[in-house]
Amino acid sequence: MSRALVLGGGGIAGIGWELGLLSGLAAAGVDVRDADLVVGTSAGSIVGTLLRTGADLEQAHTAQLGPVPATERAVDFDGAAFSATLAEVLAGATGEQDARARIGALALRARTMPESERRAVIGGRIGAPEWPAARLVVTAIDTADGEFLAIDRDTGVPLLDAVAASCAVPGVYPPITIGDRRFMDGGLRTPTNADLAAGCDRVLVVAPVGGVGGLLGPSLDEELATLRREGQAHLVLADDAALAAFGTNPLDPATRGPAARAGRAQAERVAEEVRAFWT
């Protein structure tokens, strides 16, 4: 029986929530680190990398509760304004890839922190690890043409570069240069890209936020339907308490602690249903 863990995007708050949830599940005897495949998008690429490269879950959760590292930088982010900007950019798009390419053009012209600084931020979260032996897939999108990529160790892309690209929210953080191409957040296709786990017998999807689908990619419901054609899928979305902890700016490092605590509390409520599914 093959099992996959899908970790979705959700900003710095999403990282905290996922680490709180997964550490809480492990503390309850439900350790999902033995998945055959881990798919990480944006925040999920951070958490997936930590899981696959041997980070101690309890320590990773505790770190979210401590002081914000000096490498983390607060940014202004207004979700409603961001959505409105995307709606303007997407007007007239002819398909999913064209829609993503339009956002890529927005990302390329935005004034953001230097790319080197952003790489340092990501390095502060995950170090500079090599790709693990256990399968890890990280998602990103080419800013030039909107191509969606599932990056793994066979692509030859350094893991730090892949994760930095997956976390490059357009208009907020700089696209990441890999070779002669520049990449942005894989969550622009869907927040989870859960359909990459199609073919696995059981897929656990852990998502700070769900996706409604549209011009950029399939909805979460469509992804789950794809997974269930060949196997089983179980979804854990952030609950109301966790969403409240995320606040209005999930990219604010101050959300780390509250989100991690909310994830840990939610783990207590969902541990038995996840255990029944996973084992």
Task: Throw out a few tags for this protein.
globular; 8 strands; 279 residues; 8-stranded mixed β-sheet; alpha/beta; 10 helices
Question: Explain this structure to me?
Answer:
The chain has helices at 11-27, 43-52, 57-65, 79-90, 96-109, 115-126, 159-166, 220-228, 240-246, 256-278; strands spanning 3-7, 37-40, 135-142, 148-151, 176-178, 181-185, 202-207, 232-237. The protein has 279 residues and is an alpha/beta fold. Strands 1, 2, 3, 4, 5, 6, 7 and 8 form an eight-stranded mixed β-sheet that branches. Helix 8 links the parallel strand 7 and strand 8. Helix 6 packs across helix 7. The protein starts with a strand and ends with a helix.
Provide a quick synopsis of the model.
With 279 residues, this protein is α/β, with parallel strands linked by helices.
Helix/strand structural class: alpha/beta
Q: Please, how many helices?
A: 10
The poorly predicted ranges are none
Helix content: 40-55%
Beta-strand segment tally: 8
- The global form is globular
**Oligomeric form:** single chain
What topology does this entry show?
Blueprint: E1 3-7, H1 11-27, E2 37-40, H2 43-52, H3 57-65, H4 79-90, H5 96-109, H6 115-126, E3 135-142, E4 148-151, H7 159-166, E5 176-178, E6 181-185, E7 202-207, H8 220-228, E8 232-237, H9 240-246, H10 256-278
Parallel strand pairs: 1-2, 1-7, 2-3, 7-8
Antiparallel strand pairs: 3-4, 3-6, 5-6
Helix pairs in contact: 1-2, 1-3, 1-10, 6-7, 9-10
